[in-house]
Amino acid sequence: MSAGRLMQAALRALDGIAAKTLPPDQTAGHLRTGQRGGGEAYFYLRRRGYTIIARNFRSPHHRRELDLAGWDREVLCIIEAKKRERRAT
Predict the structure, then answer these.
(1) Whole-angstrom Cα distance, residue 2 to residue 10?
(2) Residue ranges of the chain with pLDDT lower than 50?
(3) Distances 83 to 37, 53, 62, 73, 74 between C-alpha atoms, Å
(4) In this predicted structure, what is the pLDDT of residue 88?
(5) 81, 36 in Cβ contact below 8 A?
(6) Quick one: which of 4, 75, 12, 10 has its CA closest to 42?
(7) Which of 4, 18, 47, 58 has its CA 20 to 30 A from that of 11?
(8) Would you call 77 exposed, middle or buried from its count of C-beta atoms within 10 A (0-12, 13-18, 19+)?
(9) Which CB contacts under 8 angstroms, 24+ apart, belong to 14-18?
């Protein structure tokens, strides 16, 4: 098992333990879905060889957020991650 997959499995196990032992999360459902999507995008890009340099970066002067920023060899990439629970009809 590669180091990235081992880390992903460990984080999922810790998330499961936290869900059973910590008080319920008061975060809105759509925000939790977005957080899961950002995590999945992070591991996907790492498996593809990206070097991630920032996650959920917020500018101190603006109300904007960068989901992910990373290097793909010599190219700096800014990634907007989207996650949906179900398909639109």
Answers:
(1) 12
(2) none
(3) 5, 21, 24, 26, 27
(4) 62
(5) no
(6) 4
(7) 58
(8) middle
(9) none
